[in-house]
């Protein structure tokens, strides 16, 4: 049995046992997948890929390699704890309409725009170093020196410049994305990025991808070795306080502040149910292609792009369950229950987005994940990306059918908002101590 077929068998078995959606089950299965680091990987690097949330998974691997543990039990920090220390959840919603182009939207359900990886490191008091430069040559020398020292750095680059990350409508230079450079063999670098084996890239391809996202200035983050125990109590409470702040207070100045946090969530819920104004989804996404593109973005935003399945809420609920024990805080456990319920609703929203006119998209996403995790070729991935673009470009959906699908989404979204507000109130109690 090939690796991809074996992986699919494991995923289907978990789906039958748990009732999870395919993509959720897939991420759980790969999180448990054992890995033996191949030649060229820096000492102590624990494995590749897996996990449910991209940045949290990468940082979990880096911290394990550095020997970072929790002071209270001596165990490595797991993915939910790392995600929570980073601030975990948030909400950002924007819709865009430019002349001559399809309207679009984006949702970010993780904490944003606050730095995710650096936030976790700083709140936990983990020694680290950040290097930035406008010089590609200096950036390459810095990377070589870090690898020579046996460290695995996180580097920021343009996601669309990575051959294996091709996907529908990805705009070059617009998507900052972190990967771990976990080793090298000659002129080939070994990158930790979704696959269960290292992604092998030439040093030139990696350098081009780093240079392609100019705002990141070839950013490189190194966790200092050897690491030691982390006192999680103060770090966890500080992280929850940050989450509460960003859900309830301004995180950006000016008119856009209302697009973030619980206000941003309320704005999105209103837009879904708004049939009349220009900002409502009925009028904004008023053609088959525009509607299909919005639903595709909605699904991706709630499951994988700056998210984990369930709009990050399920992963955050696991963090809160652990936090309840660390802090002896019953309110954290109560909040975890509410966020678990919210995750179920968010999953329903994502599933609804790809159960009507856009139903074929789910299969394309599943196939893409299988190819990524199973080491599929870039040509196959590019074919899938073109198929996804064609699906929405040629989508024909009547106005009545579009409205029926929007009504179904709005009904579930309206249930999410009060649940999220109640959960945030409990988080405030945890933060207050």
Q: Would you mind describing this structure in some detail?
A:
This protein is α+β, with helices and mostly antiparallel strands. It has helices spanning 3-18, 22-31, 54-66, 79-85, 117-124, 136-148, 203-212, 232-248, 261-273, 281-284, 288-303, 313-327, 330-353, 359-374, 378-393, 399-432; strands at residues 69-70, 89-96, 104-110, 128-131, 154-158, 176-185, 188-192, 199-202, 220-223, 229-230. A six-stranded antiparallel beta sheet has the order 4-9-5-6-7-8, sandwiched between helices. Helix 9 (261-273) packs antiparallel against helix 16 (399-432) and helix 11 (288-303) packs antiparallel against helix 13. The N and C termini lie far apart (53 Å). The mean pLDDT is 93. Residues 70-193 form the Butirosin biosynthesis protein H N-terminal domain. This is Butirosin biosynthesis protein H, N-terminal.
């Amino acid at each position: 049995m090939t690796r991809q077929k074996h992986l699919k068998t494991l995923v289907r078995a978990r789906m039958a046992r748990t009732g999870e959606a395919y993509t959720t089950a897939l991420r759980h299965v790969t999180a448990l997948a054992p890995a033996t680091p191949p030649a060229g990987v820096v000492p102590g690097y624990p494995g590749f890929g897996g996990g449910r949330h991209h940045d949290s998974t990468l940082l979990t691997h880096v911290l394990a390699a550095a020997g970072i543990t929790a002071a209270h039990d001596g165990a490595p920090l797991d993915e939910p704890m790392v995600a929570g220390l980073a601030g975990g959840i948030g909400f950002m919603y924007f819709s865009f309409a430019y002349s001559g182009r399809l309207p679009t939207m984006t949702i970010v359900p993780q904490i944003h725009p606050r730095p995710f990886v650096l936030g976790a490191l700083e709140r936990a008091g983990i020694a680290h170093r950040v290097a930035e430069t406008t010089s590609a040559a200096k950036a390459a020398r810095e990377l070589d020196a870090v690898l020579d020292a046996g460290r695995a750095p996180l580097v920021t680059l343009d996601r669309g410049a990575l051959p294996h990350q091709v996907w529908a409508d990805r705009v070059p230079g617009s998507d900052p994305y972190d990967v771990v450079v976990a080793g090298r063999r000659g002129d080939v670098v070994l990158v930790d990025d979704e696959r269960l084996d290292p992604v092998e890239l030439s040093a030139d391809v990696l350098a081009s991808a780093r240079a392609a996202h100019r705002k990141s200035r070839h950013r490189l983050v190194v966790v200092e070795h050897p690491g030691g125990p982390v006192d999680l109590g103060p770090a966890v409470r500080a992280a929850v306080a940050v989450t509460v702040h960003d859900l309830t207070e301004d995180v950006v100045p000016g008119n856009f502040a209302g697009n973030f946090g619980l206000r941003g969530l309320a704005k999105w819920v209103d837009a879904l149910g708004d049939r009349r104004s220009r900002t409502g989804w009925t009028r904004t996404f008023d053609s088959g292609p525009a509607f299909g593109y919005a639903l595709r973005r909605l699904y991706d935003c709630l499951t994988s792009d700056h998210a984990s399945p369930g709009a990050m809420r399920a992963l955050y609920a696991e963090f809160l369950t652990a936090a309840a024990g660390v802090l002896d805080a019953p309110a954290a456990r109560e909040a975890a229950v509410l966020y678990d319920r919210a995750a179920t609703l968010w999953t329903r929203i994502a599933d609804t987005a790809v159960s009507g006119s856009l139903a074929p998209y789910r299969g394309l996403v599943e196939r893409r994940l299988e190819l990524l995790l199973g080491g599929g070729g870039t040509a196959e991935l590019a074919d899938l990306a073109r198929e996804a673009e064609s699906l929405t470009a040629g989508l024909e959906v009547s106005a009545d059918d579009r409205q029926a699908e929007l009504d179904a989404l709005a009904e579930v979204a309206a249930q999410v908002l009060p649940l999220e507000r109640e959960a945030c109130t409990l988080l405030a109690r945890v933060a207050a101590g």
